[in-house]
Write a structure and sequence with these properties.
The complex is a heterotrimer of chains A (158), B (289) and C (769). Chain B is of the alpha+beta class and 289 residues long. Helices cover 29% and strands 25% of the residues of chain B. Chain B has 10 helices and 14 strands. The model of chain B has no long low-confidence stretch (mean pLDDT 96). Classes of the chains: A alpha+beta (158), B alpha+beta (289), C alpha+beta (769). The complex binds flavin-adenine dinucleotide and FE2/S2 (inorganic) cluster (2 copies).
């Protein structure tokens, strides 16, 4: 058994703690100990964005983020977007625009969109495309995803 | 990775450093590995190439290593500064747009949010993008260890892939370069066709002082065409302060091609890497006119 | 007050996908996310040789590792084989034939322990002579890959129609060309994954990504040594499939062996690198085409000979000629045709099926060739294609009745909307210009089956329907959902027939123990066939309800209709009674009580291909034309696709959202095929098994789209629709190749058109290499 480290952090608004393996990625920790299966593993090397989460306000590839580095940080995963108050406008936009086919890339796309909107609620189409350049989708051809981000962007800009 | 090829690291100790002093303490015996954004380290974690020593020293929370500032005519960038922070920095966008220009071609937003300038330098990949404009800007690297603090010029810092002048007990704390003057000209080019999310097959940075269509004190640095970034000193000398005529461009391209050392691999042939290098240089020399 | 309910149709409306909300909030549990109680992990040791005898395997250290539950090799298995020709033992016995070959497998408490155990297994090999090239593998004295196949020809297809000699004699021009199409990978975002669970009675439940559940039962059973009836297939949601999961692949039986040996559930999941190395690829093909025409452009004959690199084993890749042949013999009207394909064993990885199924390859070759032919006689590419376009109801050389097609309309629409001819003529003039960036425009078209493909005795699909006391409908369909949107289409069609809201229709589609038979999701067949079956079953239910309702009125059931949860008088729209009320009345009617339950098995009116490759194998056919406008950087060779015009015969639009999504996604995949994707395989080894070095399209690379749907209204199709999902991937690549030629005068016959290849070709043309 490899070395573990106790960490305490905020996960989707709630304080949590875990014994993180020092060699584990945040992705493994979230999917494993926290059963947050929404964060997807699709490459494990930073090339696809399926594992995108937001850490201290910045989007990150959780597959390349050491789990121990979450200590003291604020972490948002896709599961944190849906609450009693309803579903997040970004999620709604992805549904309404037909941006979801197999859906495997969707949580990563949605988290990256949340991040992009937090930086800039009024994105141009080019900014949207560039903002999603680290997120691979094999099904949709991106057009409907880009429209979804534009629609969510219109909502956010209001 | 296939299980049979994995060589998972054997980490015996974890240190979350809260200050530079704590970090260099933990690195002092040469048995520690600094962890910054992790985009290189974690991606190579299981490949067994020896990057991860037995003590993992997480420096990502050391606030002394953060920040971009201009002090006494010099721009100082903390080693933990991320590529995103470079892209977004008002100071750099105003005074050194070359660096945000590079950052805009670097990986993808999520990686840029993690990848640090210190990591890009320390990792010493021949394809590292950030080091090219930094060499062009005449950057020196601040290294600290329990023994000393020293400054090394970034050109000459690299010895080979993954290999630098830095010793195992040292930490990169910051980089510094003089604020470029108003007539400073700097451009960064990188292989595509994607706007970013490409590991460079060839990258180039050309800098100098541009006046009346002439580039003086030029620096011409290439990435991914040799084991380290390559400074084309002969080509620099050839174009220094000269009127950029068609003939000069033709000669400069030929001379440059003798200075770079691209290889043939499955990503690109030597011919194509040379073709890219020539195309970048030709276009940028023409743009100087 | 009397309530009047107008007929409102959902067909053609923008409907969002039923599964989208759960996917958006990450409630959907994909197979990759599944955990079963007491589950173990499984991993496979793969060979690093391409052709060798296995001398010995020593697994003793692995077996002794704490946490390891089982280590298995071929000797622990019943010895049955899988694959289209049953030539692939899931664990290799004495010979490895390609890089991915499975040697041993481990089940353990964690993935890390599996990894470590795998590293502890020692294998000794005796290397054998290797062969990687088809022509070399066919030569006398070539290494033999399978002892029972001394000529290395795994499969051969031949077809001839008309009089080839007469065709040649009638030709004014003959054009020849060679086209080698490459290896590409599916790159499903969800990597390969399977779980197996054994019960006390020797039955096995397999959770898998298969697109072919009922065939899997049949195909996997012999390798497991169990009866097909004892195999239950469950298909949890998957992260894409695109044809990759049509066959059984070794990891599936291996996972079952591990579950059987440990008597615990086992989950086996690939890493991305393994996905690239050990998954079936798209079939690479070497085509030789000779084709003739008269001076006026009329095609006289076409002869296509092709070699398929079959790799070490035979999966569906070797059968792609069944589709390739249809294109080569039947796309455009050609009186005399000949086709030959040989799949040749080598020590390369092997290919499976992949969206477009042999037609991506065929269309690249044929549509590049068509442009060359047009140029030979100085005709423009549009006029040449229109001249030879198949008319509706043409009977093709292989005996297909093309029915209500509109190839001419597709070509005209795409050409007119893109202002093709003006741009094309203009660009042609610029070949010798010194401009670094040049513009090009190209067109291509193709033909594909759009009403299934009868590759088995049946191409049918069963559906069961039940309604409850609250007028909620459950549809249990044979059709499979792999993210393409079947559930939504079925719910839409059923809700249309029964006048209930879509949300009141639940679709069950993932368990072979519940569902009626179907041949799986492939061949653009699912909407067509499962859709028809769903309509038919809903109509049966509708009739049952209306008859019961009619008995309470003085009308016949034909005079009634179901709208918005009511039984209404069809003509006036007058609401007579709520639907749930009549359902309850039917249910609680004492002796006459009835529940609404209906079943249907739909067999499309197509014929299986006979041994001479004759037969009308699809219930419908359709075409698409794509025009691509590109900008070429003549120095760096990079191609930027600016805009794509697509005109596709879709039969009828059922749901524009789903349709656009399929076309856009299909084109993105085709763009990757054309421009950047290539699995680089040298001496049998995969050099670029990562997204870092294998480039699929990303958002900023996507061009602008102009999509035109041509509605020919298929008489047999559900609400007139045709299958649409493959054509977009098929047609785009040659349109780009043709645009490159239009821009630069440089023709690249072997895709992908990578920057380096393009830059080299241009430098060569200019004598600067
Ligand atoms: C998908 C992907 C795309 C990428 N694209 C690009 C690209 O376009 N261009 C490019 O140049 N690179 C790219 N990279 C590589 C990588 O992101 C950069 O090299 C990055 O700058 C490394 O920084 P880091 O903070 O993540 O380093 P880490 O991974 O944390 O560390 C890298 C190395 O540097 C050492 N180190 C880190 N900080 C210090 C310090 N302060 N002092 C001493 N040693 C230190 C570490 O010990 C380690 O050996 C890419 C990587 C990925 C995964
Ligand atoms: S899984 Fe993290 S980027 Fe692909
Ligand atoms: S929807 Fe399937 S990968 Fe994006």
């Amino acid at each position: 058994m490899s070395l573990t480290q106790k960490i305490i952090f905020t996960l989707n608004g709630k304080p949590v703690q875990a014994d993180a393996q020092v060699t584990a990625s945040a992705l493994e920790l979230l999917r494993g100990a926290f059963e947050l299966g929404g964060t997807k593993l699709a490459c494990g090397e930073g090339e696809c964005g399926a594992c995108t989460i937001i850490v201290d306000g910045r989007s990150r590839n959780s597959c390349l983020l050491p789990a121990v580095d979450l200590d003291g940080r604020e972490v948002l995963t896709v599961e944190g977007l849906w609450s009693e108050d309803g579903i997040d406008p970004v999620q709604q936009a992805f549904i309404d625009e037909g941006a979801i086919q197999c859906g495997f890339c969707t949580p990563g796309m949605i988290m990256q969109t949340k991040y992009l909107l937090s930086k800039n609620p009024r994105m141009t189409p080019e900014e949207i495309e560039r903002g999603l350049e680290g997120n691979v989708c094999r099904c949709t051809g991106y057009k409907k995803i880009i429209s979804a981000v534009a629609a969510a962007s219109a909502v956010a800009a209001e | 990775m296939l299980p049979q090829n994995k060589r998972p690291p054997d980490i015996g100790e974890y240190v979350a450093a809260s200050s530079v002093d704590a970090a260099i303490d933990a690195l002092a015996d040469g048995q520690g590995t600094a962890l910054a954004g992790g985009t290189d380290l974690w991606a190579q974690k299981d490949s067994g190439n020896g990057r991860l020593r037995q003590r993992l020293v997480n420096i990502s929370r050391v606030s002394e290593l953060c920040g971009i500032a201009e002090v006494a005519g010099k721009i100082r960038i903390g080693a933990l500064t991320t590529i995103s922070e470079i892209l977004e920095s008002p100071l750099l966008n105003e005074k050194v747009p070359l660096l945000p220009q590079m950052a805009n071609r670097f990986a993808a937003p999520q990686i840029r949010n993690a990848a640090t300038i210190g990591g890009n330098i320390a990792n010493a990949s021949p394809a590292a993008d950030a080091v090219l404009p930094l060499i062009g800007l005449g950057t020196s690297v601040e290294l600290r260890s329990k023994r000393e603090t020293r400054f090394l010029p970034l050109s000459g810092f690299f010895k080979g892939p993954g290999n630098t002048q830095m010793t195992a007990d040292e930490l990169i704390t910051a980089i510094e370069f003089e604020t470029p003057p108003g007539n400073f000209h700097g451009v960064f080019c990188k292989s595509g066709p994607r706007p970013a999310l490409e590991i460079s097959m060839v990258a180039m940075c050309l800098t100098g002082l541009l006046e009346g269509g002439k580039l003086s004190n030029p620096r011409l640095v290439f990435g991914a065409v040799g084991p380290t970034p390559i400074c084309c000193e002969k080509t620099e000398a050839m174009i220094d302060g000269k009127t950029i005529s068609d003939d000069l461009i033709a000669s400069a391209l030929d001379l440059m091609a003798t200075e770079i050392a691209p290889i043939d691999d499955f990503r690109a042939s030597k011919w194509y890497r040379t073709q890219m290098a020539r195309t970048f240089l030709e276009a940028e020399l023409i743009a100087c006119r | 007050m009397d309530k009047i309910i107008e007929k409102q149709s959902l067909i053609g409306k923008r409907v969002t996908k039923l599964d989208a909300p759960d996917k958006a909030v990450a409630r959907t549990r994909y197979i990759n996310d599944m955990v079963l109680p007491r589950m173990l992990f499984g991993k496979i040791l793969r060979t690093d040789r391409v052709h060798a005898h296995i001398v010995s395997i020593d697994a003793s250290a692995a077996e002794a590792l704490p946490g390891v539950a089982a280590v298995i090799t071929a000797k622990d298995t019943p010895g049955g084989k899988i694959g289209v020709l049953r030539d692939n033992p899931p664990l290799k016995t004495d010979t490895v034939r390609c890089i991915r070959d499975e040697i041993a497998a481990v089940a353990a408490d964690s993935e890390e322990i599996c990894d470590e155990a795998i590293r502890l297994i020692k294998v000794e090999y005796d290397d054998l002579p290797t062969v990687f090239d088809c022509t070399e593998a066919l030569a006398a004295g070539a290494p033999i890959i399978h002892e029972d196949c001394p000529d290395n020809i795994a499969m051969e297809q031949n077809f001839e129609h008309g009089d080839m000699a007469a065709g040649e004699a009638a030709s004014d021009y003959i054009v020849e060309g060679e086209y080698n199409v490459h290896y590409v990978a599916h790159c499903n975002m969800g990597v390969s994954c399977t779980l197996a669970d054994y019960d006390t009675d020797g039955r096995v439940t397999i959770y898998t990504q298969t697109q072919y559940p009922f065939n899997v039962k049949m195909d996997i059973a012999p390798s497991l040594g169990v009866h097909p009836g004892d195999v239950r297939i469950i298909q949890p949601p998957v992260g894409g499939a695109f044809g990759s999961k049509l066959d059984v692949y070794p990891y599936e039986p291996i996972c079952v062996f591990l579950a059987k040996k440990t008597r615990r559930p086992v989950k086996l999941i690939y890493s991305r690198e393994e996905e690239f190395i050990a998954s079936p690829t798209r079939q690479p093909v070497e085509f030789k085409i000779r084709a003739g025409m008269k001076k006026d452009g009329t095609l006289t004959f076409r002869d296509c000979d092709s070699l398929l690199n079959n790799g070490g084993y035979t999966s569906w890749g070797a059968t792609t000629p069944y589709v390739t042949m249809r294109t080569m013999t039947s796309h455009y009207t050609v009186p005399n045709v000949k086709y030959r394909a040989r799949a040749v064993y080598t020590n390369n990885p092997f290919a499976g099926s992949f969206r477009g199924y042999g037609n991506v390859q065929a269309t690249w070759a044929l549509e590049t060739h068509m442009d060359k032919m047009a140029e030979t006689i100085g005709m423009d590419p549009v006029a040449f294609r229109l001249k030879n376009a198949n008319p509706p109801n043409e009977i093709t050389p292989q005996g297909s009745n093309l029915g209500c097609i509109d190839l001419t309309g597709c070509i005209k629409q795409a050409a007119e909307r893109s202002d093709f001819l003006n741009k094309w003529h203009e660009n042609n003039k610029g070949w010798d210009s010194s401009e670094r960036f040049r513009r090009g425009i190209g067109i291509a078209t193709s033909l594909h089956n759009a009403g299934g493909a009868k590759i088995h005795k049946s191409d049918g699909c069963g559906t069961m329907l039940k309604m409850d006391d609250y007028a909620r409908v459950t549809i249990i369909t044979g059709g499979s959902e792999i993210g393409q949107g079947l559930d939504t289409v079925l719910a839409q069609l059923v809700s249309e027939e029964l006048g209930v809201p879509m949300r009141d229709v639940t679709i069950i589609n993932n368990d072979s123990a519940l569902r009626p038979w179907d041949v799986g999701v492939h061949a653009s067949r699912t909407t067509y066939i499962a859709g028809n079956s769903a309509i038919r079953v809903a109509r049966k239910a509708r009739e049952q309800i209306l008859k019961a309702a009619a008995s309470h009125t003085n009308m016949t059931h034909e005079m009634l209709d179901l709208r918005q949860g009511y039984v209404v008088q069809a003509e006036s729209g007058l609401a007579l009674m709520p639907l749930d009320k009549i359902l309850r009345q039917m249910h609680f009617a004492g002796e006459d009580a009835e529940l609404v339950m209906a079943t249907d098995y739909y067999e499309p009116p197509s014929e299986p291909e006979d041994k001479d490759h004759m037969g009308d194998m699809s219930a419908a056919y359709s075409h698409a034309a794509h025009v691509a406008e590109i900008v070429v950087d003549t120095k760096l060779g990079a191609i930027t696709v600016e805009k794509i015009w697509s005109a596709q015969d879709v039969g009828r639009v059922i749901n524009p959202v789903g349709l656009e999504g399929q076309i856009e996604g299909g084109i993105a995949m085709g763009l990757g095929y054309a421009l950047s994707e290539e699995l680089k395989i040298v001496e049998g080894k995969v050099l670029n098994p990562s997204f870092r070095d294998y480039h699929v399209m990303t958002a900023p690379e996507m061009p602008e789209f102009d999509l035109t749907f041509i509605e020919t209204g298929d008489a047999e199709g559900p609400a007139g629709a045709k299958g649409i999902a493959e054509l977009p991937t098929i047609v785009i690549a040659p349109a780009i190749g043709n645009a490159l030629y239009n821009a630069t005068g440089v023709r690249i016959d072997h895709p992908p058109l990578t920057p380096e290849k393009v830059a080299r070709a241009i430098a060569e043309k200019n004598g600067r290499l």
